[in-house]
Design brief:
Blueprint: H1 3-8, H2 11-14, H3 18-36, H4 48-55, E1 63-67, H5 73-80, E2 84-89, H6 92-105, E3 109-113, E4 126-132, H7 140-153, E5 154-165, H8 185-191, E6 196-206, E7 215-224
Parallel strand pairs: 1-2, 1-4, 2-3, 4-5
Antiparallel strand pairs: 5-7, 6-7
Length: 226
């Protein structure tokens, strides 16, 4: 379904459950945000936490999946370092921007419009999956679905690297608002208690563009044990 078609249809006519209705509304809102404004996380460069981790040689390859890739900056950065990268996001407009950015940068990245909970349907398995800013936006039920999908899409002994808004102040302050909520180490341990081994936690920076304030991040690396 194209965005134009979806905008012209009554939600009740196209979708059944309350969850489905909420999801299409959320997608449309993000598409509008990407089309007419600049989301805070759209900084036109890779996140500093990702760059630091890559420069330490701590990202396993060659294949990487970027879930919630947005406008593609992290995926494009990793592709420029020689990784074979796929980026997925539920916003069709974000994916359109990402494809254009990759073309401008002359790097090869596969970008797909796909919900995070459906990454297990991809016909490929990945050595590393990254999530820079998605997990903290999910409610409990969506987190459970997402974690199951991560287990399906990651190879055995594969890596998951995740950056969230952290609940501890490091060099930067803790995000003060109620949404999206900050995430603690205990939150992550609880969500990934099965099929994952946490390797380390680090405090870093959740960088946003100049109209907003940067906040403390919690970076987590874990290994699949399925």
């Amino acid at each position: 379904m194209s965005n134009r078609y979806a905008l012209c249809q009554p939600v009740n006519a196209t979708l059944g459950s309350k969850k489905e209705k909420n999801m299409i509304i959320k997608k449309l809102l993000f598409d509008i945000w990407y089309r007419f404004a600049k989301p805070p996380w759209m900084i036109d460069q890779a996140q500093p936490d990702l760059i630091a981790t890559a420069e330490k040689g701590e990202i396993r390859g060659p294949t990487v999946l970027d879930v919630g890739c947005g406008s593609g900056d992290n995926a494009i950065y990793l592709a420029s370092r020689g990784f074979e990268v796929t980026g997925v996001d539920f916003s069709a407009k974000a994916i359109s921007i990402a494809k254009q950015k990759a073309a401008n940068a002359k790097v090869a990245v596969t970008f797909l419009t796909l919900d995070a909970a459906k990454i297990g349907t991809l016909d490929k398995r990945f050595d590393t999956v990254i999530d820079f800013g998605l997990f903290h936006n999910l409610g409990d039920a969506d987190r459970r679905r997402y974690v199951r999908a991560l287990s399906e899409v990651c190879v055995n002994k594969g890596q998951f690297l995740m950056m969230c808004l952290g609940d501890e102040a490091g060099e930067y302050p803790v995000y003060p608002k109620r949404y999206p909520p900050t995430v603690s180490q205990d939150d992550i341990r609880a969500s990934f208690s099965e099929r994952w081994k946490i390797e380390w936690f680090r405090l870093g920076i959740c960088k946003v563009h100049e109209k907003f304030e940067n906040y403390s991040s919690l970076l987590t690396a874990m290994t699949s044990t399925k």
